Amino acid sequence: MDVSSKVLVVGGTVSLFYGFLLGFPLTAARMKAPAASRHLVTAHLSAIIQGATLLALSSVMTFSDLPDDIETAAAVLLLAGAVLFVAGAVTNWRQDI
Prior knowledge:
By secondary structure, this protein is mostly helical. Helix content is 82%, strand content 0%. The N and C termini lie far apart (42 Å).
């Protein structure tokens, strides 16, 4: 397994775990009201979906003919984008926007 695949596997696993953890405040919010904050729902779903996408991409990286440095840079950029998206949704939820 090359570096880019390892980056995607670790990032995908952490993203899935964080998405599952966000399910607890989502459940607590839904117990009090029929609908939860849209930003909390967005953070929860995006963390889970992006985690699964990163894990799927890690298995596809073996078919890439690009140089290892470009693959690693692409994996890091994909992971950074996923982290920033989820962090933005969590920040909006915590600030009650």
